Amino acid sequence: MFKQIKINPKDNVAVALTPLKAGTELVIDNQQITLLSDIPQAHKFAITAIAAGTDIIKYGSSIGKATQGIAPGEHVHTHNCTTNLSSTLEYQYNPAATAELPKPKLESFMGYLRSDGQAGIRNEIWILPTVGCTNQTAAIIAQQANTAIAQEAWGDNIDGVYAFTHPFGCSQLGEDHQNTQKILCALAQHPNAAGVLVLGLGCENNQVEQMQKTLGDYDPDRIKFLIAQEVEDEIEVGTEIVLSLAKQASTVQRQELPLSYLKIGLKCGGSDGLSGVTANPLVGWISDYIVSVGGTSVLTEVPEMFGAEHLLMNRAKDQAVFNDIVKLINDFKEYFLSHNQPVYENPSPGNKEGGITTLEDKSLGCTEKGGRSQVVAVRGYGDRVSEPGLNLLCSPGNDIVAVTALAAAGCQVILFTTGRGTPLGTCVPVIKIATNSQLYHKKLHWIDFNAGIITEGVSMEEAADQLFSTVVAAANGTKTKAEQLGFRDIAIWKSGVTL
């Protein structure tokens, strides 16, 4: 195992790949460095003298300023480094050279081709409550339907009936109310759902009629509606509707489809100092693989772009997309400022314990998930992604809110990197990727892939091929760890008043 890594030739810090003791002697750039204190795994140490007030460079960019003089071999963290971030900024478009993208060895997957031209990787029936009042009703319908389907000969071709509950749909106003509608309607059109029951109450703000208008054109054979107050036994009627949808869906078979049908979501959570060294760059390779064959990848977590946004802006395919990225970043900063909150109130305590010092440190590692592709489009919260290539999606960094937004955007599968670990799952398969081997072996029931092998001598390209095989296997029907555990939650971004 390698002891440390200097990520970029410009860096004045290195990252410990394993816990290092004080007094350890290392040779970096032909210079001998003696560590002045213990350096925990994934934490940084100076490899040159860094004067107070000067930039600390990692990933070839500033992650903040030294608050005091830092000697070579000294631990660099929150005790001697602070963020450079403040409020909104003006930006200049400096287009980066178009990168040559790597291509995957696999060329297809086995999916379900839907009537609207989308491809699903699961053949499920979803129940979407319009309002939190019908949550338990939806759950009971799902339970009864699953029991009935298990007794049918055709039931093996249905991947399950799932109710996705949430507390919203009433007592909301304006954009906040519209966001709830947008997310639910986008999920209703997701290709992993062969059939959908939208379950209303009858007196809520989020009326079924409004949902139908927000949906626009939809397949009435695939999306059904039920208003609980209008029938005598809503559980009996709802179960009958779901069973009808399931029987219809059972006739659909997997078929070989090109990888261009895939849309993958890119997310990190519970990050550590190795996220930007192992798992995130690895996911960047997968993103580039998908984009190179005409598929789509979607990067979100806007607050975790702060400090690294210039890299994404310079990869915009044109001036219009650059302008959209600027608006995405500055609008989100204004959202923070409008609530009297600093734009840099991140990383979390767990991130800091794992070696991430400032938001710039976190962001520069976070954006590695976007690979080297051009940014082709920027989409708003609750919007569905339609343009192949790397898209940026508006969403907070909150894990469950962000993965729900990625699913609503149309991603059939989400690649989720983590250095601290999380059991999280959502309405679409989530492939959890550990940044380090210790986490992978400790939490085998949570984690699907170990990116820690990169610190043990496996090349990034070889690891990318292994991970891509895992992604294609999931697309072909192999259940992720979160699916096996039954972890399937959604969360909607609440941004307004409650009546």
Supply the key terms.
single chain; alpha/beta; Archaeosine Trna-guanine Transglycosylase, Chain: A, domain 4; Rossmann fold; seven-stranded parallel β-sheet; 23 strands; about 30% helix
Explain the overall architecture.
- The chain is α/β, with parallel strands linked by helices.
- The chain is 29% helix and 20% strand.
- It contains 13 helices and 23 strands.
- A seven-stranded parallel β-sheet has the order 19-20-18-17-21-22-23, sandwiched between helices. Strands 1-2-5-8 form a four-stranded antiparallel β-sheet, with no helix packed on it.
- Strand 17, helix 5 and strand 18 (296-299) form a beta-alpha-beta unit.
- Helix 1 (135-150) crosses helix 4 and helix 2 (174-188) packs across helix 3 (208-215).
- The model has no long low-confidence stretch (mean pLDDT 96).
